[in-house]
């Protein structure tokens, strides 16, 4: 005897000699309104030994057992039921009251039943059908209710062989409606496994048989390089299984004829593809199939696409780059990790993106127009009239505009010299162009009224009368100056570096004697020209 099982809200079952027979299903809530009690059914499976209906006894939860009856009336009803079957199923009464070994049996609660109350249109199996004799008009099972005794037990037994019996229990508060919510509605039924565990179902006004059906499993997402295990669940009797591809799928199944298979994506698989599992029932010359689909989303490594507001920029301009494909964060070659970036240097810019299936990198090249204006002048300073030569060292330019600062201009790459006759500062501009890009350079030319010079006295009289007391050098447009005084024996007596000062005729606070002295001057004028001169002068007191 099996041990007692207790499940939530479900089931008590005691079963002996499971090889004898097993109760598989109860149609608790039959159709046909007030005649429901005549249309309730029980399905059971005979074991390895044939059984005789004359030895059958049933302990209904809510009625008494009247035995099995078979007549012309029951045969007519069975013929009518078979005429409605579109599948390859068959209902037939037992011959001589014998239930063959391993047969599936359907027990109807009355010969006075409505043969069209429960549909057998989709039956794909062969069922032996037997009927309880007429006389019990009330229901044999307790329909859904929240009152009274919740658990109801059906017991069945055959007197031969000895101990051939089975028993199942269901909870009437767990019966389902046709929308599969708990409640009372025609079609409420209970199915039992070999251990007596109960499953509550409602297939509407259909007979208590398991229809041919298949569930292909759960949708999933995988990477292109991965495989996906698929497990379908089939019900009802079937001959074979076949997995097949949807119109956008190109992979393979291994194997393709088993409920459990492995799918390997093909080269054309991309995005969401549809796969089918078909169950096939062959009976004679007729083939019945039913199928279900499952969706697999194939992820590929991301392919970011870069776009730019321009493919060419001028020097010091910027280009804005935007990436589409994937999600942030991105990795730009300039370390930015958002969906856009700005480049001022141009050249090759790359962006990378990763997802669970890998990573990818895309590049874009932003060219920089190689334009640079470069202007030089020689000389850049001098006294009037000043003749200046200009050199154009610009790069990448195809157009030129010169402004010489003297109301003259030119548009050629090279130009002739310019002469500046008036003193002043002149700003010379060179504008260069290459398409929409421009560059400019400039120089300043200084034209002096007079050439730089030095005025060197030949005598001075440091005698305290306030006149000509210093040996002082005067200069015009001199930017650097140095003067050293020597006596006749070449001994250095004094040195100064500022034109505003000079020698007062003293040596270490003592008056130098009258006589001839020597000077050496080193200077630089405003044009950066070096001036070197030397000579003598007289000191007279």
Structure description:
The protein is mostly beta strands. The chain has five domains: 13-202, no CATH class; 213-299, Immunoglobulin-like (Sandwich); 307-368, no CATH class; 375-448, Immunoglobulin-like (Sandwich); 453-539, Immunoglobulin-like (Sandwich). Helices cover 2% and strands 47% of the residues. The chain is built from one helix and 47 strands. The strands form 13 sheets. Strands 2, 3, 6, 7, 9, 10, 13 and 14 form an eight-stranded mixed β-sheet that branches. It has a five-stranded mixed β-sheet with strand order 32-38-37-34-35, with no helix packed on it.
The helix content, as a percent range, equals: under 10%
Q: Please, how many helices?
A: 1
The pLDDT mean sits at 90
Number of domains in the coordinates? Answer: 5
Strand content: over 45%
**What separation lies between the terminal Cα atoms?**
152 Å
Q: Helix- and strand-based class?
A: mainly beta
Shape category: rod-shaped
List the helices and strands and how they pair.
Blueprint: E1 13-16, E2 21-27, E3 41-46, E4 51-52, E5 56-59, E6 68-69, H1 72-83, E7 90-92, E8 98-99, E9 104-108, E10 126-132, E11 151-158, E12 164-171, E13 188-192, E14 198-202, E15 213-215, E16 220-223, E17 228-231, E18 233-235, E19 240-245, E20 252-254, E21 260-264, E22 271-283, E23 286-299, E24 305-308, E25 312-313, E26 319-324, E27 331-332, E28 340-343, E29 347-355, E30 358-368, E31 375-378, E32 381-383, E33 386-392, E34 399-403, E35 409-410, E36 418-420, E37 424-434, E38 437-448, E39 453-455, E40 459-460, E41 474-476, E42 478-486, E43 492-496, E44 506-507, E45 510-511, E46 515-525, E47 530-539
Parallel strand pairs: 7-10, 9-10, 16-23, 25-30, 32-38, 40-47
Antiparallel strand pairs: 1-12, 2-3, 2-13, 3-9, 4-8, 5-11, 6-10, 11-12, 13-14, 15-18, 17-21, 19-22, 20-21, 22-23, 24-26, 26-28, 27-29, 29-30, 31-33, 33-36, 34-35, 34-37, 37-38, 39-41, 42-43, 42-46, 44-45, 46-47
């Amino acid at each position: 005897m099996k041990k007692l099982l207790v499940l939530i809200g479900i089931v008590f079952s005691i079963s002996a000699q499971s090889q004898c027979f097993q109760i598989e299903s109860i149609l608790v809530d039959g159709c046909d309104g007030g005649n429901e009690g005549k249309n309730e059914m029980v399905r059971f499976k005979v074991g390895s030994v044939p059984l005789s209906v004359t030895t059958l006894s049933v302990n209904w939860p809510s009625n008494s057992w009247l035995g099995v009856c078979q007549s012309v009336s029951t045969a007519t009803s069975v013929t009518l039921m078979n005429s409605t079957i579109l599948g390859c199923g068959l209902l037939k009464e037992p011959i001589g009251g014998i239930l063959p070994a391993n047969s599936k049996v359907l027990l109807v609660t009355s010969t006075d039943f409505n043969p069209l109350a429960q549909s057998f249109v989709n039956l794909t199996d062969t069922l032996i059908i037997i009927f309880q004799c007429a006389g019990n008009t009330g229901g044999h099972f307790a329909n859904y209710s929240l009152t009274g005794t919740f658990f109801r037990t059906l017991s069945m037994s055959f007197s031969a062989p000895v101990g051939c019996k089975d028993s199942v229990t269901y909870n009437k508060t767990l019966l389902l409606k046709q929308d599969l919510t708990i409640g009372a509605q025609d079609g409420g039924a209970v199915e039992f496994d070999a251990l007596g565990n109960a499953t509550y179902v409602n297939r509407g006004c259909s007979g208590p048989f398991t229809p041919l059906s298949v569930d292909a499993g759960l949708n999933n997402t995988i990477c292109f390089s991965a495989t996906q295990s698929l497990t379908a669940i089939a019900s009802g009797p079937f001959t074979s299984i076949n997995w097949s591809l949807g119109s956008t799928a190109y992979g393979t199944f291994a194997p393709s004829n088993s409920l459990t298979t492995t799918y390997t994506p093909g080269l054309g698989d991309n995005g969401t593809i549809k796969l089918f599992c078909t169950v096939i029932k062959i009976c004679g010359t007729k083939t019945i199939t039913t199928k279900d689909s499952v969706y697999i989303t194939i992820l590929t490594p991301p392919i970011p696409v870069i776009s730019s507001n321009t493919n060419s920029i001028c020097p010091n301009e910027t280009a804005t780059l935007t990436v589409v494909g994937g999600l942030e964060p991105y990795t730009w070659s300039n370390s930015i990790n958002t969906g856009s970036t700005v480049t001022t240097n141009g050249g090759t810019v790359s962006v990378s993106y990763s997802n669970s299936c890998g990573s990818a990198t895309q590049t874009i090249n932003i060219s920089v127009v190689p334009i640079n204006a470069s202007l030089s002048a020689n000389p850049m300073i001098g006294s009037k009239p000043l003749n200046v030569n200009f050199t154009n060292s610009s790069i990448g330019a195809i157009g030129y505009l010169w402004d010489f600062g003297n109301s003259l201009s030119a548009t050629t790459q090279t130009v002739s010299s310019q002469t500046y006759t008036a003193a002043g500062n002149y700003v010379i501009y060179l504008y260069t162009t290459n398409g929409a890009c421009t560059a400019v350079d400039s120089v300043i030319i200084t034209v002096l009224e007079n050439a730089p010079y030095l005025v060197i006295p030949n005598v001075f009289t440091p005698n305290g009368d306030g006149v000509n007391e210093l040996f002082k050098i005067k200069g015009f447009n001199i930017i650097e100056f140095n003067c050293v005084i020597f006596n006749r024996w070449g001994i250095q007596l004094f040195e100064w570096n500022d034109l505003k000062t000079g020698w007062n005729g003293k040596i270490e606070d003592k008056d130098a004697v009258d006589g001839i002295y020597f000077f050496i001057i080193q200077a630089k004028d405003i044009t950066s020209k070096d001036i070197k001169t030397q000579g003598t002068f007289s000191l007279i007191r």
